[in-house]
Amino acid sequence: MTEILLEVRNLTKVYADRGKQVVRAVDDVSFSIIEKSTYGLVGESGSGKSTLARMIPRLIEPTSGEILYRSQNLLSLSEKQMRAVRQEIQIVFQNPFSSLNPRMTVRQLIGEPLQIHRKMRGAELERQILEMMDLVGLKPEHANRFPHEFSGGQRQRIGIARALVLHPKLLILDEPTSALDVSVQAQVLNLLIELQKHLGLTYLLITHDLGVVRYMCDRAALLYLGKIVEEGPIEQIFRAPAHPYTQALLNDVPSIDPDQRMLDQVQLEADLFSVRWSGIGCRFAPRCPAKQIGACTTVEPQLVPLTKNHRVACHLAHPHLALEGPP
Ligand code: ADP
Ligand code: MG
After folding, report:
1. Residue 118, in any domain of the structure
2. Which tens digit of pLDDT belongs to each residue from 157-176?
3. Are residues 258 and 326 in the same domain?
4. CATH number (domain holding residue 24)
5. pLDDT tens digits along 186-241
6. Which DSSP letter does residue 176 get?
7. Is the same domain home to 217 and 283?
8. In a domain, 283, yes or no
9. Is 104 exposed, middle or buried, given 0-12, 13-18 or 19+ CB atoms closer than 10 A?
10. Which domain, by its residues, includes 299?
11. Which of 26, 31, 25, 24 shows the shortest CA–CA distance to 9?
């Protein structure tokens, strides 16, 4: 049976910054994650990935939308009820160098959630700390050491152990390996795969690296300026990417098979922050090598199905729907 563990509907976060400029950091995002699967969230820096991740356990309050966790709308829960849900939804942060308190030992870092939420102490606490350390590949003698005594990869193991110690169901991994050396990245990703099998975990994996997505994920969404531009099963996204943004990103993935290199050599015209979107038409149009004057610059494309479970927001992918321009 495939059960949906998490569904977000029309999730939106609008920030008003000092100059009264409004940033739609996450804009009308909808997707769902099947239990025990890995869902990828891909996009450049600034595309809204971390904001979206932090809204799920309500570390950031959404401006609008719905978050359904095991069919329960989290936005209708009290703060007390949310505290219980947050034990099931844990986040592993990107930077193991700053996300761990440097004054706490490994034993304290892993044991703290058990002491706070389970009032655990003594021999049972020690047993669970050591069991969790073993599970993530840390040795018993590491328990008395401080984070600065470890390499980046080992520090991320500590972060993962701390996130897992309350036995969550959903792990949100916000760029868990992007601060690590390439050789260490693979070890941490393989550990995550093993843990998922062993513990029946569901992952929301955030990354800007399509190689990581391909290796880890069952489905993925590509986020561009806060909006999903393409969403679907991994093998469809890699075999037949439909959005020019996805196509451009795929050209930057070094480890893909020769078939993938046959994609049109789409090149992005500039980076995310050097091209401003006017707010009219397709948000990707200012950088899109395939844009057509007309619909692309005047009508915002909607995320609509291309096949049964592959959605794309691009006028060029849906020629029957648009390209006549505005009514
Ligand atoms: P990512 O994780 O993909 O790099 P973020 O979610 O961190 O993206 O940021 C998305 C957008 O929201 C960026 O333009 C960022 O500057 C803006 N943003 C993030 N947090 C805040 C905040 N607290 N106040 C105002 N703007 C913010
Ligand atoms: Mg981020």
Report:
1. no
2. 999 999 999 999 999 999 99
3. yes
4. 3.40.50.300
5. 999 999 999 999 999 999 999 988 889 999 999 999 999 999 999 999 999 999 99
6. T
7. no
8. yes
9. middle
10. 241-327
11. 31
